[in-house]
Amino acid sequence: MGLFDSLKKSIENVAKEVDLHKDDLTKELEKFADQAKNTVNNAVGNNNTSLPQQKSAPVYQAVPVMKREVADQFAKFDDIISRNFADCEVIRNLPARELAPSCHPACTPVQFMFYTNGVPSLAVVLVKENTYRGMNVIGTKKICEDLNIRYIRFYHEYENAEDYVVNRIRENL
């Protein structure tokens, strides 16, 4: 049996395995889609009372696929902002297209957009240290710069102690 015969046999084996588990994968994806739909419907139907709100700012509910540590950091920042900036109007998970409708669809959303007198004033973005120079992050930063919105980023793999986060946000508000 030659190299190509062996390769062909391996590919056929992989194809058989995919076929065997195709139904299970489809069911799991459908289950995930239903959960995501229910989450969005509940957030919209309940005016998203599960998250603290400041000045009844809308909450954009994306259903991001996040690694656990990223989701944990978002929750940590959400808690810090809710407790320390309760008097501020904050929109969470604001898609970049809400700021610039013609922007590239891959632009990073603004995790926390602070408003002053109804006008966006500070964008807080959480990124991985090795992706902050990616076009999706740079695109969102450029949108903010073009709209005269201050922009700060935090690296979600760092500790981001509460006093550090609060001080940086206060310095930029």
- Derived from helix and strand composition plus strand pairing, the structural class reads alpha+beta
Total helix count? 5
Q: Please give the largest β-sheet.
A: 4 strands, mixed
The residue fraction in helices comes out at: 40-55%
What would you report as the Rg, rounded to the nearest angstrom? Answer: 21 Å
Summed over residues and divided by their number, the pLDDT gives a mean of 75
Instruction: Note poorly predicted spans.
Output: 46-57, 59-65
- Classify the beta-strand content into a percent band: 15-25%
First-residue to last-residue Cα separation: 69 Å
What is the 3D form? elongated
Number of strands: 4
Order of strands across the main sheet: 1-2-3-4
SSE order, one letter for each helix or strand = HHEHEEHEH
* Oligomeric assembly: single chain
Question: Could you characterize the architecture of this molecule?
Answer:
- The model is unreliable at 46-57 and 59-65 (pLDDT under 50).
- The protein contains five helices and four strands; from the N terminus they run ααβαββαβα.
- The longest helix has 43 residues, at 3-45.
- 50% of the residues lie in helices and 16% in strands.
- The chain has 173 residues and is α+β, with helices and mostly antiparallel strands.
- It has a four-stranded mixed β-sheet with strand order 1-2-3-4, with helices on both faces.
